[in-house]
Design a protein that fits this description.
This protein has about 325 residues and is an alpha/beta fold. The chain has helices spanning about 20-25, 30-40, 50-65, 90-100, 115-130, 150-155, 195-205, 215-235, 255-260, 275, 285-295; strands spanning about 5-10, 15-20, 40-45, 75-80, 105-110, 135-140, 160-170, 175-180, 190, 210, 245-250, 305-310, 315-320. It contains 11 helices and 13 strands. The longest helix has 23 residues, at about 215-235. Bound molecules: acetyl coenzyme *A. Acetyl coenzyme *A binds near residues 37, 112, 214, 255 and 310. Acetyl coenzyme *A (ACO) binds near residues 153 and 217. It comes from Marinobacter albus. GO terms for molecular function: beta-ketoacyl-acyl-carrier-protein synthase III activity. Its main location: cytoplasm.
């Protein structure tokens, strides 16, 4: 049996940091409110002109290097983002050219904060079926570009960044299972209410902003993530205690803590970066994964549970033997 195993990870954060104290000067909020309600202390925000692919490229190069590979070894690129550089070509194609790779399939996936799990699930299937051997999977965003910096309900939550993994075909172990879902009936609880079809003038004018009914999203997120934990464990006939690390989407420390509680897992087995990164949407899981791999917490053969919930609504998980 062929598995897709993580061969290397990488990440990149823009240098510019915006603290809660900086935000206190911009909107009617406090450092205390942001910390208590979300766990966020600071976030990285891309400089003017810095694009999603600009952030993705160093993350991708780092992941390829960590895998001991060269860019030309990559035979599939799957790029998760909701803030692409252009309407087309895809970020995956733009990145492919920057990396000097030619000919392999390259495409974007749009599932907002669940984007990385969707991209991983997709790339894993290409490897399992023998179509690809070495896949580059990226989550990268400049969410700051679709934030209304006058809306305290959303502007304190998000940050920019990029994370990447290289998945390599392996006969022994790797991704054990992936589970992805969506329910479009919740569209208006979390969306950018205009796009190319009827609001392109607003997009061009930089007036296309995230709108979120945070409290309602919160309740559905906690409930749904609890269910995906059960679904993932059942599919693998595993116990909660078999999981070494929870690597969750980093939207809110209270949502993360609820999932850890569901797993009977102490918080020191949970990779938390939301305090430093904010919610970087599709980038948050690969960013968190790379942090914990590089600081030595995550070791080879550890069992990782990745989970995410986001706009759509979309949600998903991946169980991985690292
Ligand atoms: N500073 C101070 N007060 C604020 C702020 C702020 N930045 N933002 C909102 N408030 C106020 C509200 O106006 C409200 O005041 P009121 O009671 O006088 O009306 C009060 O704080 C409570 O607001 P709630 O929205 O009920 O606060 P809540 O505890 O739910 O926290 C939050 C808000 C952090 C947004 C939370 O609901 C959340 O994390 N939701 C889920 C987000 C999520 O997971 N999204 C999915 C992924 S994102 C994606 O896919 C793009």
């Amino acid at each position: 049996m062929t598995f897709a195993r993580i061969a290397g990870t990488g990440s990149y954060l823009p240098e510019n940091i915006v603290t809660n104290q900086d935000l206190e000067k911009m909107v009617d909020t406090t450092d205390q409110w942001i910390r208590e309600r979300t766990g966020i202390e600071r976030r990285h925000i891309a400089l003017e002109g810095q694009t999603t692919v600009d952030l993705a490229e160093p993350a991708a190069r780092q992941a390829i290097e960590a895998a001991g590979l060269a860019p030309e070894d990559i035979d599939l690129i799957v790029f998760a983002t909701s803030t692409p550089d252009k309407i087309f070509p895809s970020c995956a194609c733009i990145l492919q050219a920057r990396l000097g790779i030619r000919g392999c399939p390259a495409f974007d996936i749009q599932a907002v904060c669940s984007g990385f799990v969707y991209a991983l699930a997709t790339a894993e299937k290409f490897i399992k079926t023998g179509t690809s051997k070495k896949a580059l999977v990226i989550g990268a965003e400049v969410f700051s570009r679709i934030i209304n910096w006058k809306d305290r309900g959303t502007c304190v939550l998000f940050g920019d960044g990029a994370g990447a993994v290289v998945l390599e075909a392996n006969e022994e172990t790797g991704v054990l299972s992936t589970h992805i879902h969506a329910d479009g009936q919740y569209e208006k609880l979390l969306h950018v209410p205009c796009g190319i079809a009827d609001g392109y003038d607003q997009v061009k004018a930089g007036l296309a902003f995230v709108e979120m009914k945070g409290n309602e999203v919160f309740k559905v997120a906690v409930n749904t993530l609890g269910k995906i934990v059960d679904e993932t464990l059942e599919a693998n006939q595993m116990q909660k205690s078999d999981i070494d690390w929870l690597v969750p989407h980093q939207a809110n420390l209270r949502i993360i803590a609820a999932t850890a509680k569901k797993l009977n897992m102490p918080m020191d087995q949970v990779v938390v970066t939301v305090n430093e990164h904010g919610n970087t949407s599709a980038a948050s899981i690969p960013l968190a994964l790379d942090v914990a791999v590089r600081d030595g917490r995550i070791q080879r053969n550890d069992v990782l549970l990745l989970e995410a919930f986001g706009g759509g609504f979309t949600w998903g998980s991946a169980l991985i033997r690292y």
